[in-house]
Amino acid sequence: EKLLLQHYSASDSVFKDIEYQLIADSLNPRRYTLKYNWQHENEYRFAVDSASFHAYNGLWNDKLESKFTIKAADKYGVLEFYIQNLPASMPAFVELLDKSDNPVRKASVNNDAALFEYIDPGTYYARITLDANNNGKWDPGEYSEGREPEQVYYSNKSYEIKEFWEVGEDWDITAVPLDKQKPLEITKNKPKDDARRKREMERRDARNERNNSRNQNDQNRNNRNNNTNSSFNNTNRGTY
User: Fold this and answer.
1) Domain coverage including residue 213
2) Same domain, 182 and 199
3) Of 26, 45, 150, 182, which alpha carbon lies 20 to 30 A from 39's?
4) What is the 3-state secondary structure (H, E, C) of 23-69?
């Protein structure tokens, strides 16, 4: 086979072929997930033969081989959200985000809850999408159809996940106004805070004061030059 997944057999000291599922990502057509009943603290080998797939430009892949080990269960964390004020019968999914606002995990909302297991330790953020057409991804609006973009809510908190931690969080998606939900840490165009705005105003006032002073000095110099020229002309007229 061109794509091969193997499990290391400690008793035989060899890798043996195993069956798996390759699932396409609903948001990124170039991303796939290997689905298998992974065993903790076990070693696996994934191999891709050359010319198994090609890019948009027609170039084929080189041969690839990767070995990896599934960490022990206590090396991961668990995070579960209990969603409040979700519209009745509205499909939805929650995404965990990294510090760059990129989604790293996704979970469907079932019975007003979204569960994330086996999370690597780290800092995460979260957003929820009301998936009106239940296709597992965010859809923009369509003017010709009079359809609004699917509504997205952010949690205004960050979540610190540690090894062997289980965290449960209540999340009222309407408790914070929409324009104040997204944490500043993952907001690309951050609003200017009051202190920065004050400093900018002070710098602007100082520039204006310097410009006014410079203009006044120029005006005074011009006046002195005019007075000097006038005196010189009067003196010259008196000698004829």
Assistant:
1) 192-219
2) no
3) 26
4) EECCCCCCCEEEECCCCCCCEEEEEECCCCCECCCCCECCCEEEEEE
Q: Please answer whether residues 36 and 4 qualify as being in contact, where contact means their C-beta atoms are separated by less than 8 angstroms.
A: no
pLDDT in tens, 46-64: 999 998 888 888 899 899 8
pLDDT, tens digit, for every residue of 148-206?
999 999 999 999 999 999 999 999 999 999 999 999 999 987 665 556 656 766 777 77
Q: Are residues 199 and 215 in the same domain?
A: yes
181, 79: one domain:
yes
The structural domain count of the chain equals: 3
- The residue with tokens 């006014």 is 212
Residue 232 belongs to some domain of the structure: no
CA-to-CA distance for 28 and 191, rounded, in angstroms? 30
Residues 110 and 144 in one domain: yes
Compute how many other C-beta atoms are within 10 angstroms of the C-beta atom of residue 115.
Answer: 14
Would you call 236 helix, strand, or coil by DSSP? helix
List, in sequence order, every residue forming a beta bridge with 231; answer none if it has no partner: none
pTM, to two decimals: 0.69
Q: Is 219 helix (H, G, I), strand (E, B) or coil?
A: helix
CB distance 82 to 113 below 8 Å? yes
DSSP 204: H
State the amino acid at position 163 in one-letter form.
Answer: E
Are β-strands 122-130 and 159-161 bridged in parallel, bridged antiparallel, or unpaired?
antiparallel
In this structure, is residue 178 part of a structural domain? yes
Are 102 and 153 within one domain? yes
